[in-house]
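Researcher: Please translate sequence to structure tokens.
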Amino acid sequence: MIKLTGRFTGHVDLSSQVGSVVLRNPVLTASGTAGHGTEMAGYLDYASLGAFVSKSLSARPWAGNPAPRLRETPCGLLNSVGLQGPGVDAWRSKELPKLVERGAVVVASIWGTTVSEFERAAQMLAGADGVVALEVNVSCPNLEDRSRMFAHSPSATAEAVDASRSAQVPLWVKLSPNVADLVEIAAAGLAAGAEALVLVNTLLGMAIDADRWSYRLGSGPVGAGLSGAAIRPVALRAVHDCRRAFPRGTRGPGGLPVSIVGVGGVSRGVDAVELMMAGADAVEIGTAALRDPRAPLKVLAELTRWCRSHDVRHVRELVAAVHDDVTTT
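Model: Translation complete:
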């Protein structure tokens, strides 16, 4: 369907919904790129975003990988931070209240190396004021399965999601693109109780220093995660394929329509438009915010202008627009 450019200059309804969570707009920060709390307060109006997604938290403090941890590439960024964090208790007591004071809608990202660690992290966030959902980051090593990532196995993904239900808040599951059948793993996460799919996490990458005959990053042979513009087509394909597998109106075990949050290389309003047309209900801004902390608000402004110039009165009109089998709820 081709929609002709219009002259609409009125109000664009930006309200969006991810699972049972209603958002003021579809633009969120991506986990790990806007800090644990209000580090970007000088640049971001947290109350203007759809939601703030925290850096991934484990049940206990975690030191992460040795430096150096970041390396720019021609079209993106390699990161080997290694999920460094203060642990749920410290974050809940020190960082979360600051976010709530600034009007942020908070999605807490959690991770673990065992199923019980996911359960513990989720339990520690039960009843946390201001936390509307958990983003279950399954792109981490499963020590109970020879350190293979949870996200690489449908059963392990399902176990991590199921364990996270102990928080008693809506669950989103963040998946890895480094798999043979993403739809199969997405289906397992949804069946286990996730209301939304977050697509995608970083691609596996590595940096070698030829002059030193060694690795460039402190993680060494483990490598790093590639993010930024280079992975946008990968995210677009993942969102598209999962939306085709779970069309709008498809309901998960909880009876809610399956939602998708697109993430990967979004730095402009039109990038967000494309991900939403592929099937995303909302988008997260990550690497772009590391270069420019104002990037999420810029993307939101550009998205709004794009909708006006294309006679889109409600941003939800964009969702899954390229699919022939679009149904509405």
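Researcher: Any highlights?
Model: The mean pLDDT is 94.
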